[in-house]
Amino acid sequence: MKDSIGKRFAIYALLTALSLLTLAPFVWMVATSLKPLGEVESSQLLPKLAQPDNYPQVFKQINFARYYANSIFVAAWVTFLTCLTSSMAAYAFARRIWPGRDLVFKLYLATLMIPGVVTMIPNFALMVKLGLLDSYAGLIIPASFSAFGTFLLRQFMLTIPMALDEAAMIDGATPWQIFWNVAMPAARGGLIALAVFTFMGNYGSFFWPLILIKSEGLRTLPIGLMYFDTMYGRATHLLMAASVMSIIPPALLFILLQKHLVRGIQLGAVKG
Amino acid sequence: MKGTRKRHELTVALAFLAPNLIGFGVFTCFPVLYSFFASLSNWNLQNPNQTSFVGFRNYAVLLQDPQFWTYLINTGYFFLGLPFAIMGSLWLAILLNRKLSLGTAYRTLLYIPSFTSGVAIMILWKSLYNPDYGPINETLRHFIDFIGLNGQITPPQWLSSTKNVFGLEIDKPGINPTQFGIGARDALIYMGIWTAIGGNNMLLYLAALTNVPEELVEATQIDGASRWQSFLHVIWPTLAPTTFFIVIMSIIGGMQGGFEQAKVMTNGGPAGTTTTVAYHIYTKAFEEFQVGYASAIAWVLFAIVFGLSLFTWKFGNRAGENG
């Protein structure tokens, strides 16, 4: 459908207005992060004199670098393990034919229905029993098995013809070689999307680290931010500086990889 | 020969499934069963040695507890934002669904809130909502001044107010006229809409809109159908499966939701008005250590989620057949 010039102008104006509305809180956040404490309550949006020293100040007040590192370390491990276990399972579901496959797959999908709150308490008790309370392993291992990831990668792996696997098999390739050289390249887009979603989901994860972590040195970013807010709630300028720093990685990641992410979201849901 | 082949395939498949399957068994299947048994006990984390089987007593206590019903109503209250969020996403998708030279830039900007959502964004909104010097009330005061109603109306107290658009009673199910207004629950809903509107649902609608037969839309418009009619009769039915998926996922997520907001922004208050079932479970299990009782709440929640999904499934499918 061709839109008239007037209509196109109206659409641009509308989208620009909506984008500004979306961005307004972020603008306020950045502006406040540069204010001195005395100006935090002023109604002027911009500081009289920007005070970038708020940013290093955050690192002095709390162990921010440590929280950052913890979040990235844990999220990176969870991402690696999730991608590995999901892609292997997806290969079994998409590229191998075995008795009971469809039934097992349906059961897998059904588990997506189980609310996290149901499994949370027993998992906590399990961590206590295994001695993983207050440890990196306790943050990483339970988060590394995803039914959603298996489902998403299966969708991608179904998009290439089975003849490729058969040809590779005739050439004497082992199942692992077929998995690695045929199925994985087909799932590349999905794998990138899954990796970013898993990383981001874990980077922002709140409930599990909140109940599992007791030591200050093991806090992840969301937990560290929450305690910072509880202790220094009046220091809005420092809180905003910390918040800006903690949303920079997800914002950058999205902007850089958005093509894959958009396709991942759409394929993961619509073609189900 | 065929039998060996089959067995070989099964072995290969199991080998590839094993890592995921074992993890799944340990961290999902086993906990689900365990949680059900826990809900039938008086298990307390502070004296786990005195755990005994109490049958369905937790469930009986729970269903007679007005607190539980109040929190269930709170959870339901947050669904008020859902139609606005979903329709908003659809509207944005329709706006973006054309060749615009800045299309990707707009899409990126609109998506950023949902991608960055979390504790940082909640701390930000807590400041935005500050009734005294937050920018939202600052703006509202200017606006009130501008329309000349200064002194007659005051901006909402946002996160520190128990008021709500239905005038719901504070600590028990019921209506109380003095509670009419805008308060913490509404504040969280607006924040939720801002976060979600340009997020995944918009992307799903954008993908689904590419399936709308354009010739059909044009044909109906040549026949004199209004824009609204062609939306109703061509676009909306084509999008039905996507809408259905979004609604189901939102119900499942929404019933379990509200924990982070409550923990970071309101501590479930004021007067418990932002305590959802999920936050209630957390408080019972990890602050009062009554894990048996908390497990029972979790199972009731599970049953509700399951029931609502089944209902939507049936209702949604019938709507699809008629549409």
Structure description:
The complex is a heterodimer of chains A (about 270) and B (about 325). Chain A has helices at about 5-35, 55-60, 65-95, 100-110, 115-130, 135-140, 145-155, 165-170, 175-185, 190-205, 205-210, 220-230, 235-270. Chain A has a single domain, classed as MetI-like fold. The two termini of chain A are about 30 Å apart. Chain A is mainly α. Chain B has two domains: about 1-35; about 65-320, MetI-like (MetI-like fold, Orthogonal Bundle), CATH 1.10.3720.10. Chain B contains 14 helices and no strands. Chain B has helices at about 1-40, 55-65, 65-75, 80-95, 105-115, 120-130, 135-145, 185-195, 200-210, 215-220, 225-255, 260-265, 275-285, 290-320. In chain B, helix 1 (about 1-40) crosses helix 14. Chains A and B meet through helix 1, helix 3, helix 4, helix 5 and helix 11 of A and helix 1, helix 4, helix 5, helix 6 and helix 9 of B.
Summarize the structure.
Chain A is mainly alpha-helical and 272 residues long. Chain A is built from 13 helices and no strands. The relative contact order of chain B is 0.13.
Kindly report the greatest chain-chain contact and the residue count on each side.
Answer: A-B, 87 and 93 residues
Separate helix tally of chain B: 14
- Overall helicity of chain B: 55-70%
Mean of pLDDT of chain A = 89
Rounded to the nearest angstrom, the distance between the terminal CA atoms of chain B is 51 Å
